[in-house]
Design a protein that fits this description.
22% of the residues lie in helices and 40% in strands. The protein has 379 residues and is α/β, with parallel strands linked by helices. It folds into three domains: 192 residues, no CATH class; 82 residues, Immunoglobulins (Immunoglobulin-like), CATH 2.60.40.10; 83 residues. The strands form four sheets. Strands 3, 5, 7, 9, 12, 14, 16, 17, 18 and 19 form a ten-stranded mixed sheet that branches. Strands 1, 2, 4, 6, 8, 10, 11, 13 and 15 form a nine-stranded mixed sheet that branches. It has a five-stranded mixed sheet with strand order 20-26-25-22-23. The longest helix is centred in the C-terminal third of the chain and has 39 residues. The protein is extended.
Length: 379
């Protein structure tokens, strides 16, 4: 929700003209998600609420205040001053921002792109994975402040007597950077140097069961979307499997493949163009309709067996409590507590007995379906 502070009289006119209006020279407040785009211009922008996310994609802003654990994403435009306050987060991936500042502990600024004219950290956390810092550089943080820089090829040049010095290096996308640090600021810097071309990791997804309803084959959709590359490189996917000695393959993150009845081990290797991952596997079981019903029946029987085991164990506890109550020696426990515990266990047993009855009815229906489909019931 946007609320302006200097255009109440003209509100209805502006509202009728456009829902995404430009209000040059005015203040604006967000209490829920919103967007600021090209053509909009504000003296002050206030963002409140721990679930509020505001995207700044363009326009001009005098002062931007992130408050009350809110999140502001800046990907374009120009901001004269941006402040993270009340543990809010400012993510900068583009645009030009003059002196983004963390005001208090718990505040965070994440810079992955754009141009920052100075950054004042104080006692919050600054994470840099890209972008540029021009002007004087990064200001001295207060105690507890930290500057985390992720890249590689770091070289540090101290400037005794003037400032802490200058850090040079490369972001993980090979873009070079250099950052100046004011006196005391570099003491709070933590460098995370990662070698390039880390080996990607393949994830073939969860095992699946699919049913061949009217034939001896079924279609299964593979899922390698959880595969990853530490460098963020684009991945290619190669799936392979064997049927009767013949090797088959598919490509892509989520290809659909046709498999015959039986259990099949599908192997996945991903590549970032430089290195290949280790192999990950997924097992896909292709069952007939009656085989699937048999498997469901077996699952229900197993659940019934587990419930029966739990009921026996709970009955043992009830018997012990009954003995305590009958013998009068409560072992230091309060009588009311023993009675209440016994009642709770009885209630638990009643719920499980009801669940048993429901499962048994379901099992009877399932077995009836199997008989109708001509499948004998296994003991």
């Amino acid at each position: 929700m946007k609320s302006g502070t200097a255009f109440l009289i003209a509100w209805t006119v502006v509202l009728c003209a456009s829902a995404n209006f430009a209000a040059n020279g005015l203040d604006i407040t967000f209490f829920e998600d919103g967007v600021i785009s090209d053509g909009e211009s504000y003296d002050d922008v206030f963002v409140y609420g721990d679930t509020t996310v505001v995207d700044v994609k363009g326009g001009k802003i005098g002062k931007l205040w992130g408050r009350d654990r809110s999140t502001v994403n800046i990907s374009g435009g120009r901001v004269t001053y941006a402040q993270s306050y009340d543990r809010s987060t400012i993510n900068i991936s583009g645009g030009t921002i003059t002196e983004p500042s963390i005001w208090d502990a718990g505040g965070t600024i994440n810079v992955s792109g754009g141009i920052c004219w100075n950054i004042r950290v104080r006692d919050g956390e600054l994470n840099m994975t890209g972008g540029q810092v021009t002007g004087i550089g990064i200001y001295t943080p207060a105690p507890g402040g930290v500057v985390k820089i992720y890249g590689y090829g770091f070289e540090y040049y101290p400037f005794p007597g003037r400032s802490d010095g200058r850090l040079k290096g490369y972001w993980l996308d090979d873009t070079s950077f250099d950052v100046d640090f004011l006196s005391g600021a570099y003491e709070a810097v933590v460098l995370y140097e990662r070698a390039r071309d880390f080996v990607p990791v393949a994830d073939a997804g969860q095992d699946q069961t699919v049913v061949a309803v009217t034939s001896t084959t079924a279609e299964a959709t593979l899922d390698g979307s959880a595969s990853s590359d530490p460098d963020g490189d684009e991945l290619t996917y190669l799936w392979t499997w064997t049927i009767n000695g013949n090797v088959y393959s598919a490509i892509g993150a989520d290809p659909a493949i046709t498999l015959p009845l039986g259990n099949h081990v599908i192997k996945l290797i991903v590549s970032d163009g430089t290195a290949n991952s280790d192999t990950d596997e997924v097992v896909i079981a292709v069952l007939t309709l009656t085989q699937q019903l048999d498997a469901l029946r077996a699952d229900k029987l197993q659940v019934l067996e587990k419930i029966d085991t739990m009921l026996k164990k709970e009955q043992q506890v009830v018997n012990v409590l009954d003995e305590l109550l009958a013998g009068g020696d409560l072992g230091g426990l309060a009588l009311d507590d023993i009675v209440a515990a016994r009642e709770n266990i009885h209630l638990s047993m009643q719920h499980q007995e009801q669940a048993t009855k429901t499962l048994q009815k379901g099992l009877e229906k399932l077995e009836g379906a199997l008989l109708l489909l001509g499948s004998p019931l296994e003991p």
